[in-house]
Amino acid sequence: MTRAKRVAAEMRAKGLEAMVITHPADVRWVSGFTGSNAAVALVGGRGRLFTDGRYTAQAKEEVQGLAVTIATKPVAQEACAWLEKAGARICGFVSAVTSVVDLEAMKTAISGKTRRGFFRPAPGIVSRLREVKDDVEIGAMRRAALLGCRVYDEMLGVIEAGMTEIEVAAELEYRARKAGAEAMSFDTIVASGVRGSLPHGRATGKRLARGEMVTLDFGVILGGYCSDMTRTVYLNRSARFSPLEAEQKRAFDAVSEAQIAAVSAVRSGVSCAEVDEAARGFLRAAGFEKEFSHSTGHGVGLEIHESPRVGAKQAQKLEPGMVITIEPGVYVAGKYGIRIEDTVLVMEKGCEVLTPSVKSWMEL
Ligand code: ZN
Ligand code: ZN
């Protein structure tokens, strides 16, 4: 069954007669189209992709299972006008990714009588379907993750005290691109020493110093799919640890064990909350509950952050084929931060770690 047909089946199950899809990652997943400007309209058993004249040849090459219209007006408006003409009177749109401005513009495409009540916020049907990856997607994600691991392994021979965080990020990204990455999944995070306590500290001009922990969080895109991994290494100063270094080592060991516990908890049928608790419970027992200030992980795929969210109170159950991250961390304001992150493929019994780079204590 084509993906558009799978979306149509879900729409039917939810009593939704028509739907407009404008989010680029959703459009790509449904149609195969990778251009930056497109909308997909689905009604009854029919579907059509709207893009503009720049993409005529590309759409012909890429789009699968849908008719294509080269639009002269904004694509979302043409898609909605087509749905109305096809007889739709209620049309779902994904409220989580549609701006108020875009919705107002789509409304202008619908004639006066029909406009009222035409658009209805729809549950994330496509984002839900995207959670479970097929074999082709899993292959792409494996390759992206392994490329990330190769680059990380190379970086272990590059990182040294005196480099700035930006230099580390530049070396890493250069190697990733040379190895074939289409892009980075997000701005590479290099956070050393005190800056490590910022969970999302982007690389700055700060120089790495001995005695510091350095957190690298990065991903590459290959075949459209994102990888995501984090490692924290220690820049060795001397044979004997200072009190701060000893504290860092203790925190690292706690994060490491929490991360391994959460990875071990992953398998089909387990809830996201249970996986989160496997990491969080461990850090709580080790006295780091307050220092672990974010969720344990997230889905990853065409986008770096997708559903499901692997957090406390998330009752959603894991299914085979989901790809999620496991990334507990400890952040001590003004001192240091530590995070270890793997991307894993959920399986019937357990999971496959897609990012097998060494994650134990590493002194450079
Ligand atoms: Zn990450
Ligand atoms: Zn992540």
Number of helices: 11
| Helix fraction bin | 25-40%
Low-confidence segments = none
The largest sheet has its strands arranged as 4-3-2-1-5-6
How many beta strands in the DSSP annotation?
Answer: 19
Radius of gyration: 23 Å
Q: Tell me the CATH topology of the largest domain.
A: Creatine Amidinohydrolase
Structure class = alpha+beta
> How large a portion of the residues is in β-strands, by DSSP E?
15-25%
Quick check: average pLDDT? 95
Summarize the entry for a quick read:
By secondary structure, the protein is of the alpha+beta class.
Describe the fold and architecture.
This protein has helices at residues 3-13, 24-31, 56-62, 75-85, 100-108, 112-115, 125-131, 135-155, 165-178, 243-265, 272-285, and strands at 18-21, 38-43, 46-51, 67-70, 91-93, 119-121, 183-184, 189-192, 213-218, 220-222, 225-226, 229-234, 297-299, 306-310, 323-326, 329-332, 336-339, 342-346, 351-353. By secondary structure, it is α+β, with helices and mostly antiparallel strands. It folds into two domains: 3-129, Creatinase/prolidase N-terminal domain (Creatine Amidinohydrolase, Chain A, domain 1); 132-353, Alpha-Beta Complex (Creatine Amidinohydrolase), CATH 3.90.230.10. The strands form six sheets. It has a six-stranded mixed β-sheet with strand order 4-3-2-1-5-6, sandwiched between helices. Strands 7-10-11 form a three-stranded antiparallel β-sheet. A three-stranded antiparallel β-sheet has the order 8-9-12, covered by helices on one side. Helix 4 (75-85) packs across helix 5 (100-108) and helix 10 (243-265) runs antiparallel to helix 11. It is elongated and about 75 Å long.
